[in-house]
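Predict the assembly for these two chains.
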Amino acid sequence: MADPMHQFQIHKVVDLPTVNLPGLGVVDLSITNSVVSMGMAAGLICVFFALAARQAVVPGRLQSVGEMLYSLVDDLAGSIIGHEGKVFFPFVFTLFSFILAMNFLGMFLVFTATSQLAVTVTLAMLTILTVVVVGFARNGFGFFKLFVPSGVPAFLLILMVPIEIISFLVRPVTLALRLFGNMIGGHVVLKIFAGFIISLGLLASGGGIASLGYLGSVVSLGSVVALTALEFIVAFLQAFVFAALTCVYLNDVVNLHSH
Amino acid sequence: MDAASAKYIGAGLAMLGMIGAGIGLGNLFGSYLAAAIRNPSAAAGERPMLFLGMALTEALGIFALVIAFLILFA
């Protein structure tokens, strides 16, 4: 059976020279298939919203889809963060649409940019840095009250505060790993079941009782179709969950005093 | 036991972590359905929360999958 992990290999498309950055060391500037995929996702979003952002009062189909995505994230930010959520809407919407575009392109093309840990870790780090910066900007050193839940007796606090700090630090890790794991898992399962179609069919061509392999082949084909549908749902859901969790973490720091 | 067999056994054991995710998801959707049948008009309002809870629970199962892949392929 072919190796299901081969699809996640990074290949260079345009080989550019490396540069030596003072703090980061040697950085390879080559354009890889990951870079091309991310660029296509960004371009796709720009083109889609350029076409969808008409001002028709009765929206056409494209405009309806754009408005649905906009209102989904707008309602999410408004309901979770409250009135101040409107300020964070551009950031959350950029995250949502970028992740959605990368996930969907991964279903149609050979390569999924979000199946690279580097991409998801970058997005998660951006989110947590935004949360921390917003927390300090709004609350000053009162930001550390986030780790001290109210109404807890003093002897429990000694246990609770390290737990709260650790659970806060784990948030970017889970954000990155959730998206990464879902994308990797989905595509690996699709590849494995697709491999079954061919391998069971080859097995069945031996004749005799092995002709049951044709049945197995057909069942595998059916499951690949069903899994592809599931993967489309997961692609949308993971973008939604990333955006929703960003809103929840922002709510924690923005509404620190009114828990 | 050579490294290759140990890898396969390790990956299989790591996937046992999905048991918890499966139980959690069944719990989640079961409660949602039970409440939705009692109060159908309020069910639609809580559906975003359902999907959020589903993705969070599924994530823990996916972490088990990531460990299994790490054991198998790295």
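Residues 4-254 of chain A form one domain. Chain A is about 70% helix and 5% strand.
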